[in-house]
Amino acid sequence: MARVFVITGPSGVGKGTLIRGLMERHRELQLSVSATTRAPRPGERDGVDYHFLDREEFERRVDAGEFVEHADYAGRSYGTLRSELEGRVRAGAPVVLEIEVQGARQVRSSVPDAVQVFIAPPSLQALRTRLIGRGTDDPEEVERRLRVAAEELEAQPEFAHVVVNDRLQDALEQLTAVVADELEGRGTTLEAQPGKATTK
Ligand code: ADP
Ligand code: 5GP
Hints:
Elements: E1 4-8, H1 15-25, E2 30-31, E3 35-36, E4 51-52, H2 55-63, E5 67-73, E6 76-81, H3 82-90, E7 95-98, H4 101-110, E8 115-120, H5 124-134, H6 139-153, E9 161-164, H7 168-183
Parallel strand pairs: 1-7, 1-8, 2-7, 3-4, 8-9
Antiparallel strand pairs: 3-6, 5-6
The structure holds adenosine-5'-diphosphate and guanosine-5'-monophosphate.
């Protein structure tokens, strides 16, 4: 059966970096391209990094039921289009969603057997350093994202798998192990092992 992998966690924690590494190791994985109302960053391409939509078009698609999940994040809307997910799942391809926590919760209801991994920072200070170091967000946006992050971190116990991205290489090994186990049918779930909140 095709698997859906949800990679969540606060902005700047390293989700994108880890997913790039993961996809090099598991070339069968396909990344769902999300829709957003935020403006493209320099170098981002429409249809590749995101489907960039204006608010009216995003709302129209919400009303038309075109999203599997959608959420407001730091004043912008983000969502996973059914068209990104369903064709790939039907074709049997394992799909990766890189989404924030509210979206992950919605997927938990609509795709209960999706494998959800929360990526946690070693500290809020490390998160701040990474967000500043990435250089994509102005200081006000960095602070907005850090405020959201403090709330998102409280959601950590909801997730069957938590990977702390301290040393990148270690985190990548852990994430790859979770995905490999699931793809090979050896995965565990929160239900299977109550109270377990870390990766094996
Ligand atoms: P996200 O996709 O979660 O917003 P990114 O993958 O863009 O995060 O990473 C944010 C920044 O942190 C990037 O500049 C990235 O190179 C850096 N980074 C990622 N993982 C680590 C790590 N383990 N240690 C230090 N810096 C990291
Ligand atoms: P960014 O603006 O940095 O690209 O993304 C901001 C946040 O939105 C990140 O935490 C990212 O994971 C999340 N995000 C990206 N795409 C989606 C999506 O389709 N749905 C949801 N719920 N969140 C998303």
